Structures are given as structure tokens and as C-alpha cells.
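Query structure, 190 C-alpha cells:
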């Protein structure tokens, strides 16, 4: 795994090998990440990276949030409760000398109250098929983590419907990964 673009372009990230099923680590492949970030940077969603505050839920290795930081985001909060994931995130932050990120060792479905800038860009990559994505979004809303208009990038095994308070903007399929793009507030519900 590597950073695809931006100031850390080409920099390798700590490897989890083929994943860690026991810890629910299923890193987004470089190919899927590259396609996803190219789509986000394509202009349809403005510039979601510049001056963004990122919330990376079920962060795993932190690759999604780190890619956003590399492309211009100003801060990131990585949330995961797995020991292996937390060690990988911390290793990646250290090797990149990233000082604009924070790690929260906690279940993403039980977020604490937000005490920093609200997220404008959210990555949500829960273990597939367990219904945790909607719970994590509800926790983020309750905890005040999302700014009005925040863009949510939700990876799952199937396209997701927009929960109350969110609008579904797009869905894409990359192999067995489905990415659903949501916007918080502003446009209402669909």
C-alpha cells in the first residue's frame, strides 16, 4: 500500500499483508483507492480535500484519511478499536511525520462528543454486512462530529440507502466493494 497523490505521493504505508480477518482489517486496495480518489477529485463534489477536516471511521490502516491529508486536508481524526489497526495507524502517522491527525481508540458506533473541528469529509469503511455503518453515522451525528454539507464516503459490500438527515449523491462499484456517497444535511433526505 502507498499514498497515491499529493505531498506524500508514492510513500509506502505499513502493510497488513492479506488483511487480518480476526481484527476485521480489510484494507482498501491501491486500485480501488485510486479510483475512489480520482472520482472525488473530478470536480463533481467541488474540492473535497482542500481545507477539509476528515473523520475516518473504522480507519484500519488509516490509508483513506492519510490520502486525504496528502491531498490538502488540514486535519484528520482516525477512529478504530482494534489493537492491530491502532498500531498500523500510529506507525503510518509516525513515518509520514504527520502532526495534524488524532487517533481515537474507540468503537466507531460509540463516538465521544466532538471537541475539535467538525468533519467536512468522512470515510466510513465498516466490517461488511454487519449493519455498523448506519450506527456509526448516527453516533457521529449525535456527537456533533459532522458539519452541515459534510461528504460521506461509505464502503460496503452492497450499495447503501441514505439514513435520515443524509442525501445519497452517487454509488459506484469497484469489484466486490460498493461505494455510496452521501451528503449530511443541506439537501434533506432521500
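Result returned for the query:
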Amino acid at each position: 500500500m502507498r499514498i497515491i497523490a499529493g505531498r506524500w505521493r508514492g510513500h509506502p504505508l505499513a502493510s497488513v499483508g492479506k488483511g487480518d480477518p480476526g481484527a476485521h482489517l480489510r484494507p482498501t486496495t491501491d486500485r480501488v483507492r485510486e479510483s475512489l480518489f480520482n472520482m472525488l477529485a473530478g470536480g463533481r463534489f467541488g474540492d473535497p480535500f482542500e481545507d477539509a477536516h476528515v473523520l475516518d471511521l473504522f480507519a484500519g490502516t488509516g490509508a483513506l484519511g492519510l490520502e486525504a491529508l496528502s491531498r490538502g486536508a488540514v486535519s484528520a481524526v482516525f477512529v478504530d478499536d482494534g489493537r492491530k489497526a491502532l498500531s498500523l495507524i500510529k506507525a503510518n502517522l509516525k513515518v509520514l511525520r504527520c502532526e495534524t491527525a488524532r487517533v481515537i481508540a474507540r468503537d466507531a458506533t460509540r463516538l465521544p462528543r466532538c471537541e475539535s473541528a467538525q468533519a467536512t469529509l468522512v470515510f466510513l469503511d465498516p466490517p461488511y454486512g454487519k449493519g455498523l455503518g448506519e450506527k456509526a453515522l448516527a453516533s457521529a451525528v449525535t456527537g456533533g462530529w459532522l458539519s452541515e454539507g459534510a461528504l460521506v464516503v461509505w464502503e460496503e459490500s452492497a450499495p447503501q440507502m441514505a439514513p435520515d438527515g443524509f442525501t445519497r449523491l452517487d454509488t459506484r462499484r469497484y469489484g466486490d466493494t460498493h461505494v455510496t456517497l452521501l451528503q449530511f444535511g443541506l439537501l434533506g433526505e432521500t
